[in-house]
Target: Histone deacetylase
Amino acid sequence: MLKIAYHPTFCLNLPEGHRFPMAKYELLPQQLLYEGTVNVENFFEPSIDARKWILQTHAEDYVHRLENGQLSKAEIRRSGFPWSREMVDREFLLAAGTIEATQFAMRQGVAMNIAGGTHHAYADKGEGFCLLNDQAIAANYLLDQHALKKILILDLDVHQGNGTAEIFAKQDRVYTFSMHGAKNYPMKKEASDWDIGCPDGMNDEEYLAVLQDALAVLMKEVSPEFIFFQSGVDVLATDKLGRLSLTIEGCKRRDQLVIEWAKNNNVPMTICMGGGYSEKIADIVNAHANTYRLVQSTYF
Model:
């Protein structure tokens, strides 16, 4: 059975002006349940204490200031969210959810987090709606608990996974791959192990051809024992913060390539949702829902 990390806190009720990025975390589960892609038994609420692996990933001083409301005004602006105790609790739960999803994935091949993919969070700072880097935290959990030799973080959000790249810059056991808009945020990119910068306006066929070639190289050269997939849907042509031109069908084919590639190579994978900022919330929810539909039809 597909297991999906979810908690009501993921749908944090923010002040007007900050609410839009959060709406999909409430609507997506509702859509999946309504159409019968999943049922309530597919969802689990995170319960693990993630602090040990958070502190293996993030600077202790940063975590302390984050927890105690001591971030500077500049740090709060860079994060994109107003500070609140609820936001901090949400970030800890997100990390716990991705860790627990890796546990399910190790047993059954795949698991998902309805949120997560907070790839702009650095070791010592947050930015771009990301305060703690859940996939990096879960990768450190796997290194600590399962002694894996190679983990791949496959980031297909339209924005480069700059925080993830920085966190693992000196960790040979985690390979970071980011395929993103070359001229998109962040303007200053970090160096992933492999970055592919996509030109503005890149369409379905161009994008999928590049990705398919990259996946073949990654499996051959990296030989990952575990994959984290950041499946942001801000690659859509309709996205307000993206500069690529993928259709919803093209985004679905992207996910199909990744999902079938991981399954056919017997590599367990955890999938987190990442970004999505199209004008119509229905486009965001449908594009994300396709990822779940594909996982169900491919694995279960």
Summary: The domain at 4-299 is CATH 3.40.800.20 (Arginase; Chain A). The chain has a mean pLDDT of 95. Residues 43 and 270 are 14 Å apart (CA to CA). The beta strands are 4-5, 43-44, 110-113, 151-155, 174-181, 194-198, 226-230, 269-272.
